[in-house]
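We emphasize that the prediction below concerns an isolated chain of 322 residues; any contacts that depend on oligomerization or on bound cofactors are therefore not represented. The input was used exactly as deposited, without trimming of termini.
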Amino acid sequence: MDPSAPVLVLAGRFDPTADLAVEELNRRKVAVFRADTADFPCALDLSARLEDGRWCGTLANGRRSLDLEAVRSVYYRRPARPRLPASMDPEARKVAEREARRGLSGLLTALPCRWLPPPGAAADAEHKPVQLRLAAEAGLRVPRTLITNDPAEAQNFALALGGQVVYKPFLPVRGTLGGRSAAVYASVVSAQEVASPDLATTAHLLQELVPKTHDVRLTAVAGHLFAAEIHTTGQTNRVDWRRDYADHVYKACTPPSSVVQGVQQMLDRLQLPYGAFDFAVTSGGTWWFLEVNPSGQYGFIEQATGLPITAAICDYLEGESR
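Result of the prediction step, given as a token string:
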């Protein structure tokens, strides 16, 4: 690999997780070109030609220019959708945004380099029903799960599990409510609550309530596994620790061999070099698979435990690991 070959970092302007990788790559004297797809086409210029089966051209931001042929790898950290001028006709803006996304993302995906994670595989891996099936096939313990929009089915499922289940959204739900930031977290709901007619308005994911003592975030990077226990002190955090990061105590840990094998098998099936896995652990030491995020954050784990996750990511982006 040409030591001068750059790494393309696709991330939002304010992304502390991407910052960690950029800082480490800079320390290693690896060239980095950072961009957010939200800046295209207003603040990013693209010009590429197909020559002899290769895409040749540049991506430029007014200060620097990236030689597309030279890109060694791409770190894909949740870049935003293209932003078009608000003055555009709404219908024209919708079409232009779609074309901008297809043009830029499609071209970058066509470059013959490694991605962390590959955008197509990452998008497929976001589907929780796929994750849960693959986890079960890989030998991981998975809570009993129901996906339904039938209130009667939901109520019967909850009653069969003791009258309470966990509801969780299929994707993160964040926004504003009354001018304040709001989010939907996993929460315990009763058989009476899931019997509401409102449940029929969309699909819901309900799961068995695992009697956990703590959670584990296991970050996998190109065959390397970094696991950390997450202990919470507040009751509101016991179901979903994401409610309050200030309420955590972290401790590096070693996953059981069965979990290691299951995680590696899942990553192989999902064709992912990276995954942020969440597990619930019971008092008997059983690890229950909850979900995997193909582009999940890891900085808070590294900061608290010293686990060298950034180094492993940069090794992969440099081309030094599989």
